Amino acid sequence: MRNSLNCRTLLRVHQRVVDRGQWSDGRYGYLGLWAWSDFDGYTAFLGNDDVTLSVFFHNRYQFDYSDSAALAQFLAAVERVAELQ
Fold first, then answer.
1. Are the C-beta atoms of 35 and 45 separated by less than 8 Å?
2. Scanning 1, 29, 54, 79, which has the fewest C-beta atoms within 10 Å of its C-beta?
3. Are 35 and 28 in contact (CB under 8 A)?
4. Measured between alpha carbons, how far is 61 from 43 in angstroms, rounded to an integer?
5. What span, in angstroms and rounded, lies between the C-alpha atoms of 81 and 26?
6. Could you tell me which residues come within 8 angstroms of residue 48 by beta carbon, excluding any fewer than 6 positions away?
7. Strand-pair partners of 50
8. What pLDDT, in 10s, does the model give residues 60-76?
């Protein structure tokens, strides 16, 4: 799974959620995804109710999820937002 995602794409999706989303509770929400970052902006987060994706400095990322079905649903939402113009 680790090599199937591109950090540049993940950061682009993060920015789209921020640009097009609604601000609520310290994060932006758009099309079922939430986007936020840490206090210094070096770590970007994407998530939904069941999955959190942390995108770190130097093109590293890490998933935290409850089960593989939740991860598949999250990745489908990420792909949907990535394909938007």
1. yes
2. 1
3. yes
4. 9
5. 20
6. 32, 33, 34, 73, 74, 77
7. none
8. 999 999 999 999 999 99
